[in-house]
Amino acid sequence: MTEKVRRTPAKLHKLVKDMDLEVLVRGSDFDTREVTVSDVNRPALQLVGFYQYFEPQRLQIFGNSEINFLKTMPVQQRRRVLDDLLRCEIPALIIARDLEIFPELVELTEKHSRTLLRSQGTTVETISRIIGYLNRQLAAQITRHGVLMNIYGQGVLILGDSGVGKSETAIELLKRGHRLVSDDAVEIRRVAELIYGTAPELIQHYIEIRGVGVIDVQQLFGMGAVQFETEIDMVIQLEQWVDGKFYDRLGLGEDSIDILGVSRPIVTIPVRPGRNLAGIVEIATMKNRQMKYGFNPARDFVTQFDRHVDEMMANSKEN
Predict the structure, then answer these.
(1) Which end of the chain has fewer CB atoms surrounding its CB within 10 Å, N or C?
(2) Is 98 a catalytic site residue?
(3) What is the CA radius of gyration of the chain?
(4) Angle ∠(46,125,67) on CA atoms, nearest 5
């Protein structure tokens, strides 16, 4: 399956809201500016005039060191230094630690129509939170047709052809107390070596059942039945039962699927009338958790069976 991998820039105004940053000066591009890199910059070298390797697309952060260094300068020199920095088309300048702002800094940000923000957190804490946020927002993303649920604390992505019973299985799982993340379309992003799934905003909390229509899961089952995002721990592939096809009966096979370069275990479940798919999905999820902790019931069974056969053969030879 060829999938289009995309990276969506982070909106500055959304970052400000999500990070709970104080807006001191609202730049002319505040509502439209996009942040395209996850790294941030503490402009130490720029305060002494070195701009050779300066990357203006990064968010700029002043901490205690930068502010106190600027305090040592005469006012006119400080104005000149800040003016040089704010001439660059930076997304925003953030003041950490809720530090006081120089009047000339406010004046110059207004002059150059830059955004000036302030955080109550320490410099390291602010940088860490912003980088973590941007890493998630700017991560590689794909969209897959399927259902994503949180079952026993694990994110389970259910795939299969249209009409195979994904949504019906999801409804039964909801009735058993599990949580829906997304139905029909699942937006998947990779952050480091983990993959996360969420629902497109338009269909969040909705699920479609053929013959019934669209239902609002949050309204019907309650807030505890929905979840905005989950890490994807395993994949379940539903497919129509094919007579004569070999299906693993012991579970010795440990198949995996590659999603955005990350490997996840996949279990194929054949669908036929009368099979309790929700119960089978629950069992597959619990087994996956067992295997994470090093327990493989199929291997244990085969080991015990082989031992039993060996003992029977040994006894037959003695007799």
Answers:
(1) C
(2) no
(3) 28
(4) 35
**60 φ/ψ sector (left φ>0, alpha ψ -120 to 50, else beta):** beta
Residues 229-286 have pLDDT tens digits of 999 999 999 999 888 777 666 666 678 999 999 999 999 999 988 889 999 999 999 9
* Residue 166 among the catalytic residues: yes
**What integer pLDDT is reported at residue 319 of this predicted model?**
63
Q: Check 245, 249, 258, 317 and give the catalytic one.
A: 249
**Which residue in the block uniquely carries the two structure tokens 């604390």?**
153
Name the catalytic one among 14, 80, 145, 210. Answer: 145
Q: Which amino acid is at 91?
A: P
Per the residue annotation, which of 184, 264, 289, 299 is the catalytic one?
A: 184
- Exposed/middle/buried for 303, CB within 10 Å: 0-12, 13-18, 19+? exposed
Low-confidence ranges of the chain (pLDDT < 70): 1-2, 247-253, 296-302, 305-306, 310, 319
Residue 43 CA to residue 63 CA, distance in Å, equals 10
Q: Is 184 a catalytic residue?
A: yes
Q: What is the pLDDT of residues 156-179, one digit of tens each?
A: 999 999 889 999 999 999 999 999
Catalytic residue among 112, 166, 179, 205: 166
Residue 93: partners with Cβ closer than 8 Å, 6 or more residues away: 60, 61, 62, 85, 86, 109, 114, 115, 116, 117
